[in-house]
Amino acid sequence: MRKILVLGSINIDHSYELERIVRPGETVASRAYRTAWGGKGLNQAIALAKAGARTALAAQLSKADMPGLETLCAPFGLDISGVRGLDCPSGHAIIQVESSGQNSIIIAAGANGLMEDATISAIDQYGPGDMLLLQNEVNRMPEIIRRGKERGMTVILNPSPCTEDMLDWPLELVDIFILNETEGEYISGSSQVEEMLDILSTKFPAAGIVLTLGAQGSVYRRGEEEHRAAALKVEAVDTTAAGDTYTGYFLAGLSQGKAVKESMELATRAAAVTVSRPGAAESIPLAEEILQAAGIE
To answer: Which residues are catalytic?
Structure first.
């Protein structure tokens, strides 16, 4: 089984349940409030570990939050030896979740925006055949991409959230892109799915492109190879970690030797379970739960 290093963010999520997402100038009362672990790096690392992949996380957070992280990750064997506690606040997110399950998120970087050499150097423990999974919630990303490629790793990028400087990154070094429609449109300049795929495949001819399309499922393209997976019908409670769950389970499937199509279908089932319950990291299912999800159609 291939080893996977996630170098990314850890956040403390502050979630508010609302009838609908707040409009400009409006003040509303939330129906419920909770705090939970989140951050795309942590969420995706947890999804990988819960799916059975050999996973390590390199990240930064406040020293005060380290004991809680250790308690969270111990039950499913996520290696957090590369997580470092700093004398600064952890990153955090403010999440509005409306009754339909849709969300709106504000992120404050905290320790995620202060990436240190000692954290990035976790990459040096890996080499050819290993995977490096990245997002866009930490700084020094161009350097991190290049360093992973220099080690011979398979570099996977989930370019979220999209930022203007991202277009100047060495994206030609990325081996697999995992994007939703918004991210695909930002990089390609097109809002039409098929045109988006054509543009991305032309810009990055050696890369695999995974495009998640919500209710329309997902599609994978690399050169002439293409696979599609239909979405599953499920009542959405909270979509916060759906994309992170898909990413983790898809890459876990590949790391375990599964074919692309099978990995996509596994990821689809896992994401369907995630959106059926509230929260971010805690909503991500274990692999055995996916086998019990036969009631999802």
So the answer is: 244
